[in-house]
Design a protein that fits this description.
The protein has helices spanning about 10-20, 35-50, 55-65, 140-155, 165, 185-190, and strands at about 70-75, 80-90, 100-110, 115-125, 125-135, 160. The protein has about 200 residues and is α+β, with helices and mostly antiparallel strands. Strands 1, 2, 3, 4, 5 and 6 form a six-stranded mixed β-sheet that branches.
Length: about 200
């Protein structure tokens, strides 16, 4: 089974053409009551993709069974362009110093690709005071869980890892809250605020 079976070549050109269907380069519709055509396409796609949430939840359960010493949760939000799950150590909240690490797995709803990234979060009481994102090389403690998430995503959904070089490709589009020249294919295909995890 696949969350996204749309065949598309993994090239910067094809992925840029794809995301142009769902995001705009201007703020023409920001003060209007109606949605832009791109936003309407994005919302319509999520209406279809939400029907696959049971499949995603089943995957999260299987991932939890494969990583019994860790916590695994579904952190999908339909304001982003991906299904997401989080893997992190079992600790009391708020976590003690030096903080908590999180591995996040994402499957895009726009293309049959996935990405894995890491976070290190620090808290003062219940307030988050530091968010460090690892989009490239993960620290050693995150690498084992990340490998499990990657192999299970590929085996379950038939998705391909988005190469890091492609993920960094600039996108001349607004993916809230990011705007050019800071917007990348990673933002458009997965999430523009990777630090946003409900932990």
């Amino acid at each position: 089974m696949s969350l996204n079976s749309s065949p598309i070549p993994l090239s910067a050109e094809s992925l840029l053409a794809l995301v142009h269907n769902y995001y705009r380069a201007d703020k023409e519709f920001h003060l209007r009551r109606e949605n832009s055509p791109e936003e309407e396409r994005f919302l319509t796609l999520w209406v279809q993709e939400r029907k696959k949430m049971d499949q995603w939840n089943a995957f999260v359960d299987e991932l939890q069974a494969a990583l019994p010493e860790l916590d695994v949760g579904n952190i999908t939000s339909t304001c982003n362009a991906s299904f997401r799950c989080a893997v992190y150590p079992r600790v009391e909240f708020p976590p003690p110093e030096p903080g908590i690490w999180v591995v996040v797995g994402c499957v895009s709803i726009l293309a049959p690709v996935y990405a894995i990234y890491g976070l290190h979060l620090r808290y003062s009481g219940r307030q988050r005071i530091e968010e460090r994102v690892f989009l490239e090389l993960l620290p050693p403690e995150m690498q084992g869980p990340a490998e499990v998430v990657a192999s299970k995503l590929e085996a379950t959904f038939g998705v391909t890892a988005l190469p890091r070089a492609l993920a960094r490709t600039p996108v001349p589009l607004i993916v809230e809250p990011k705007e050019p020249p800071h917007t990348t294919l990673f933002d458009a295909l997965f999430i523009s605020r990777p630090e946003s995890v409900p932990i």
